[in-house]
Amino acid sequence: MPKVLTAALLAATILSVGSARAEEISIALGSVGRDVDEMRGQLDAFQKATGHTVKIVTMPASTTDQFGQYRLWLSAGNKDVDVYRTDVIWAPQLAANLVDLTDAMKDVVGQHLPAVIQSQTVEGKLVAMPLFADAPALYYRKDLLEKHGREVPKTWAELTETAKVVQDAERQGGNAQMNGFVFQGAAYEGLTCDALEWIASNGGGQIVSPEGEITINNGKAAAALDLAKGWVGTIAPQGVLGYMEEESRGVWQTGNAVFMRNWPYAYPLSAADDSPVKGKFDAVPLPAGEGGQSAACLGGWNLAVSQYSEHQDVAIELVKFLTSAESQKSRALGTARLPTIPSLYEDPEIAEKQPLVAKWKTVFENATPRPSAPTKAKYNEVSQQFWTAVNKTLAGQGDAATNLQDLERQLRRLKRNAW
Ligand code: GLC
């Protein structure tokens, strides 16, 4: 595997040194956890090997805010950003402004899981290459469950009960800051992920089916949201309605939550030497709903080259470098980012240093995609209407059944005859 990178690097080195045309390019990326630090390290390696310099344009942590900014820049034909780090759900919406990578990546594309490449292919155009995949985990405090004689919950109902029992006992014992459960409850894309997991695992299906049918207004979906509504102000702090990934991790990592729903990046951070929960936690797949199965939302990030870039060749070279097996391995080791190259899940070094990654292959392969393919360019609005309905329900503004009914009406208006 490293051979591929070495060859790419060599070719790149010869090209740039040979033609003595060192260029400066830029990459836009949002940062969660250690993403920016890690990217800087990999960019430095690229610079060293090729002579090109790469500047980071730091974006807000919220994927929703990033999307808004990217859309503005791309529709204005911005030449200042060459490479964009893109969310797995954006391909159909941004495709028209991104370079087709099919030819440039033809020798390496086969290393990646076909479904991921498929998700980044829009009408035959490969619009982005996978950097890493994402699939969430339920983080839990081993020490606290043991102390209070509780098992790791297998269903959301069990989680609800266990979180309450442990939280209350800890509070009575003088630990006033303790919360049962933290998750992503703010009105943004992250809530679409969390709520889709509650609903899909409860047998409530999708927001929009793969065939484009609006399927969200059903009793099982409403029941899942009603259960989640009951968490706010009981096992979850009221403030969870404003939490994204890092706010949840903040509460969890200071030791003030029994359970947390989050992505794998939180694992090595929680296990770090300076972390108060080091050695006290573990992670398992999310609980099942009444439907009997667990559902994990499929996330992940990719790299795309702007059509307005004046450095497309170097930008493509960089994308190849950062999405290679060697870079993916280093990302898995450093920040537990899930590779999209299946063979890396057999890598003994990754299995030893980041056991969560090795264990997460099936969770990632069975993860539930958000309906960005069937809703095409309208996905962001669909998701926005969904997370708004969910956030309102959690906040007690209208009950789940009524809010889902309204949501269905809004989605029908948005769809009209076709997506
Ligand atoms: C993670 C996922 C991404 C998702 C986002 C929501 O970054 O990788 O796909 O959209 O979380 O907050």
TrEMBL record:
Q: Which family does it belong to?
A: Belongs to the bacterial solute-binding protein 1 family.
In its UniProt entry, what is this protein called?
Trehalose/maltose transport system substrate-binding protein
Name the coiled-coil region(s).
Answer: none
Is Signal one of the keywords UniProt gives this record? yes
What the entry lists under Gene3D superfamilies is as follows: Periplasmic binding protein-like II (3.40.190.10)
Alphabetized InterPro entries for the sequence: SBP
Q: Which region is the signal sequence?
A: 1-22
For this chain, one GO molecular function annotation is:
maltose binding
Query: Quick one: a GO cellular component term?
Result: ATP-binding cassette (ABC) transporter complex, substrate-binding subunit-containing
BP term (GO), one: maltodextrin transmembrane transport
Which is one Pfam family of this protein? SBP_bac_1
Keywords assigned? Periplasm, Signal, Transport
